[in-house]
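I can't quite decide. Please look over this sequence plus structure tokens:

:::
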Amino acid sequence: MTRRQLAAALRRARVWIAVGLLALAGLVLVDLGLRGHDHPLAAPAPSSVSPSAETAPTAVALAAARSAPETLHIPKLGLSAPIGSLGLNADGSVQVPSNTVETGWFRLGPTPGQIGSAVILGHVDSTQGPGVFFQLRTLAPGDQVNVDLTDGMTARFTVNSVAQYTKAQFPAQRVYGSHGSSALQLVTCGGAFDHQTGSYLSNVVVYTSLSAVAPTVSVSAPGAPTT
């Protein structure tokens, strides 16, 4: 090999070395960039239905003081039913009323009329016949739902919509989550009935919003006629 050929070979070698170093540097930078995102993405914060954890609305909204509900009235259905108290089962699911004639308020959420989503549940039926929420699915936008509270006030709600979901697609955050205003959701079973499991495959949800808070008007029994 002549001196000129040797010099040319050395120049080609330097070029390939430089290219190799640049490629190596690029791989290192890419690897560092990927490793910088190895940590898992932050999961959404667990939604809480506790009134103390609700986000305050940005504007003053109609609301009632916290007071446990006593009686549910749905004039269109001719319904007046006592309201019990419900919590969570051991598996984290929401409890349901122990009988078909009473409704149950989810006590880990706001009371009806507070800012947030209050939820009242009731059975649609049983082997003994129709339950307290048997006709719940017939409600329509504009219908009224009233809840008497233990502090002597009544929270009055207006139905916004009625929806049905399969239990696998139940929108828990929409039903139980706070959305910055006073809402009441009524929940029961619906849809097709699975005879093998002995349960309905869907849930019916009535969405309402608070329209007024007023003193409870008690209806007394008729007295003896006067003479």
Notes: Residues 3-35 form the longest helix (33 residues). The longest strand covers residues 199-215. Strands lie at 69-74, 79-86, 103-106, 116-121, 125-126, 129-130, 144-149, 153-166, 182-194, 199-215. DSSP finds two helices and ten strands in the chain.
